[in-house]
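Bug report

Summary: structure tokens for Peptide/nickel transport system permease protein differ between web form and batch submission.
Environment: batch mode, default settings.
Steps: 1) Submit the sequence below via batch. 2) Compare with the web form result.

Sequence submitted:
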Amino acid sequence: MKFLSAFYRRKIALAGLLIIGVLVVSALLAPYLATFDPQEMNTVDKLRSPDGTYYFGTDNFGRDIFSRVVFGARTSLTGSAGVILFSLSIGVLIGVSSGYFRRIEPYLMRLIDVLMAFPPLLLALVLVSILGRGMGNVIIAVGATYLTRTTRIVYGLTLKLREEPYIEAAIASGVKQKWIILKHILPNMMSPLIVQATFTFAFSLLDMAALDFLGLGIPPSIPSWGNMLSEGRMYLTRAPWLLIFPGACIVLTVLSFNLVGDVLRDRLDPHFRRDIEGV
């Protein structure tokens, strides 16, 4: 209840949380909510406007937009979740190692500085061009752009926590370094990482949609919101619903995660807020 009370005080954030819940449920129940096979083509009904049969209309191949939006939610949310797992796992490993073991800090953090010198979308474009298309490769490409930010946050927090009296007491007591990291350092940075994960989720979804729109992301055969925007851009004036519905889903998802992230930052992370902003 204490967790939800923070959302009750900010109604717009509560609305964002509800939208996220609806999207997650829709993604999980996509096969049951979809009214048609998202890949099924019906040239007779191509570019049909929304009605009682096709809730969101159809595309230029006669495929049901509602079904593709629902399955696209599964693809887009899964991809963003993969980016979070990749960026957090690698970022935490590099950040903690650099902050705690100072001998390797110059090498690892200079590598992160080199990656941060590239604009995020440009770096993702280069990596996906090298790795090729596919969900896994796109997750790696986009995740690489966000692990730099995560690494810097974890590195700064590790430096701060390493000087805390209870860490020094553990070192003086002869506690092994791995247990200090696992039992004292990592648990005390969970709140900032949760906050960072919400913002990473939102912006990685935008980047993955951008790659799909440019034709460098997930193959067109897989329904995703970015692919739907890419396919529908040629019919903007004739069939605007091809862009309106997937575009609205992207906007609502990103906005909702940002609103929830703001509440989580204020609720879970008041102590480290200035540390994160300064990294």
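Above is the batch result. After comparison, the two runs are identical; trailing whitespace caused the diff. The two ends are 32 Å apart (CA to CA). DSSP finds 13 helices and no strands in the chain.
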